[in-house]
Amino acid sequence: MAQTPSPVARRLVVTLALACAGVAFLRDEVSSGAGSAPLVAPLPAPAPAKAQDPSLPQVGATAQMVTLEFPPLEFADEQGQARGAAVSIVRETMENLGFRVDVQVLPWARSIALVKEGRADAIFTAYKNDERETFLDYSSEVLIPQVVSLYTKKAATHGFGGDYKVLVGKIIGIVSTISYGESFDKARQTLGLKTDRVESLDLNFKKLVAGRVDYVISNRYSAEVEIERLKLGAQVQELSPPVEITPSFLAFSKKSPFAALKPKFDQALRELRKSGRYQRILEEFKVNTPK
What is the pTM of this model? Predict the structure, then answer.
């Protein structure tokens, strides 16, 4: 004789049947796409990663740059590390774009050869000329304006005033490997200006205070360094106006992938100036640029 299920057993059977029916209903809803909305909202698709411009070097890459020994703009410290106003400006501008910089301080001719061959990515502080523009892509923004001036003893009665004719018959101390700009070179040739060549700027200033030359011509920034180092500030003066004000630039090797970075470098350099950081770097290294 069959045994009648107890009330508890009957309730359990009903509960299981309803649960199975619910699972079947949900399965059918999902498979058919019916229903006003899914029970669990799907996760949003991840945003596609922003593609990097393939023409630019990889962010975080290191640019190999070269320069010359020319304090206070660029020089090697006692540990052989590149320092100076121009070095700091270039480094911070590149870092603001997400790139690192390795700067080597080398003889200028060697630096030029390296960027021409594409073995260095960029060079500074470089003047523009037609021959260099065949293998260099210059920044549009001036990196540092270079100032060339004449110097005399403060007790001197001769001046300058922008008239090269007053230099006729006087002796001008120059450094043998340096060019002082187109206007001075032209005056030197057409007026037959007398020059006295030495191998270093400090010798010129020593000869000036000793009365062995009447003038010294020099880049303002390096002259100020030497005058301070030799403690000649009370004896030597810079004459006005400057002989020449010439822009100098950072220039990328046309063989370097970093050349594609030039428009971004220009923008970042403009922003460094606008922020006031550019001027603070100049002041840190006592670089007195024309206003």
Answer: 0.74
